[in-house]
Amino acid sequence: MSDFIWPSEEGKSKSLDEQDRAIVLATQAGLPLVSDPWTAVGEQVGMSGEEVLSRMQAMLERGVIRRIAAVPNHYRLGYVANGMTVWDVADADVERLGREIAAIEGVSHCYQRPRHLPHWPYNLFAMLHGRTREEVEQQAQVLRACLGEACHGHRILYSSRILKKTGLRLAAANLQTASTETDARG
Amino acid sequence: MLDRRLIDCYQRDLPVCPQPFQAMAERLGTSEAEVIARLQRLQALDVLSRVGPVFEHTLAGASLLAAVAVPEEERDAFAELINQAPGVNHNYAREHHYNLWFVMTAPEEQCLDERLNHLETMLGRTILRLPMLESFHIDLAFTIPWAELERI
């Protein structure tokens, strides 16, 4: 369900060389559906199929690529209720409880984020997906029970509309800028 | 049935080998041409968004989840401003005082701050900045409710 890719998250940039970046740009919208997709990608980026495949395997090992998969469109499959649950959890317990609720069925993403008091008291986020809001609410009850007394409050923020979703399309410009330093050869 | 098995078996991982669709065909007891045709069809129907790599978000450099509270009746106009800002790659309307939620990305942290500051000025509203502090788990595979889908 990477098209739920939801919050693209912050973190350190993993180092990619120029060839890796070319492969990322050529494959982020999907692989060509042909017998040997690596050679087809290679033709676009000026590499052999073997080179493309071995670089993709290396990116998988390094975690730059999470997985290569047939990515379903879950909205199309009926998962239309998308609830971002936010929880105000005692700081001392948030890490332990974050791991626990992350393992619960229906939770696709689970993150700790900063509070912004007084407007925003919630420090733990868990994305829930269901076919109906009732289903999401049932899942949220399971989370609530798991968090127990450490939880001082929560909300479910349903998405009422997707106003923009580009998945993880990396702008070529972003990658270029990110690589300026390492590629400054001349 | 083959469509289901394709999605159920391969929504997490495709074989990463020289001829992945041939490998899938062997496992499913069909031909490579059939696997490719089915995947093309599922993509055309938008049941599959794509067949390919899912990249780690941090590849994009710096990013964070941001939220802003705008008057509901002006929401779409604000959303348009946000969508046009460089680096914004998701934007959801949500039912809350903070009613627009988006992800801002940038090549690096300083640029991210600048983009957010600039957007804040444009919107004339404070942006709630919610960077990820810790990621607990990401499970992107789903049990697909095939039986229910058939009834629709």
The helix/strand class of chain A is alpha+beta
Mean pLDDT of chain A: 82
- State the order of secondary-structure elements of chain A, H for helix, E for strand: HHHEEHEEHEH
Mean pLDDT of chain B: 88
CATH-level-2 architecture of the largest domain in chain B: 2-Layer Sandwich
Gap from first CA to last CA of chain B? 17 Å
- Rg of chain B (C-alpha, Å): 21 Å
Structural classification of chain B: alpha+beta
CATH class of the largest domain in chain B: Alpha Beta
Extended strand count of chain A: 5
What characterizes the major β-sheet of chain B?
4 strands, antiparallel
- Percent range for β-strand residues of chain A: 15-25%
Oligomer: heterodimer
CATH architecture of the largest domain in chain A: 2-Layer Sandwich
Walk me through the structure.
- The complex is a heterodimer of chains A (186) and B (152).
- Chain A has 186 residues and is of the alpha+beta class.
- Helix content of chain A is 37%, strand content 24%.
- The longest helix of chain A is centred in the last third of the chain and has 15 residues, at 133-147.
- The radius of gyration of chain A is 20 Å and the shape is elongated.
- By secondary structure, chain B is of the alpha+beta class.
- Chain B is built from six helices and six strands.
- Chain B is elongated, with a radius of gyration of 21 Å.
- At the A-B interface, helix 3, strand 1, helix 4, strand 3 and strand 5 of A face helix 1, helix 2, helix 3, strand 1 and strand 2 of B.
- Strand 5 of chain A pairs antiparallel with strand 3 of chain B.
- Chain A: GO terms for molecular function: lyase activity.
- Chain A: Probably forms a complex composed of NirD, NirL, NirG and NirH. All proteins are required for the total conversion of siroheme to didecarboxysiroheme.
- Chain A: It catalyses: siroheme + 2 H(+) = 12,18-didecarboxysiroheme + 2 CO2.
